[in-house]
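Hey, I'm writing a tutorial for new members on how sequence and structure tokens pair up, and I'd like a real worked example in the thread rather than a made-up one. If someone can provide the structure for the chain below, I'll link this post from the tutorial.
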Amino acid sequence: MEPRTPPPAGETPPEPQSPPSAGQTPPEAQSPPPTSDSAAPGAKPPDPGPDAAQIPRSARKGAILCHIMALVGLLGNGIGFVLGPLIVWYIKREDHPYIDRQGKEAVNFQLTMVIAAIISAFLTVILVGFPLLVVIGVMMVVFPIVATIKADNGEDYRYPISIRFLK
């Protein structure tokens, strides 16, 4: 045992710590509890993208229009789901870079869905295509709705399943 020296005047002596018993980790070796905002070790933090406050409301409306036209075209006449976003993007792409990015995303996703639907139609011969067509139909409704909400918030949205035809 090492001799204890008294603390300087005005300070309280430290509490004596008992040695850890078998199976316990010493306090200095314990790591702090993880916080909810901490990322996995070595992982890059997500790119926040441009601040939504920096994107003018008119640009957000143009991006919303690109995404929602796919849904309107799909539910309206059935063929406008590609033409709607393509026309809106082509007309408004020069107005703001945000409209250009989101318009390309909408057009790329719709073109990808056309290709997937054609492949699924061929696969109906072996009965695999029927469930794939249902999944594609759900994706063509749900993803543009999510993209529209994200565009309204000024966030850059990337469709999860999309071939990048327009870069």
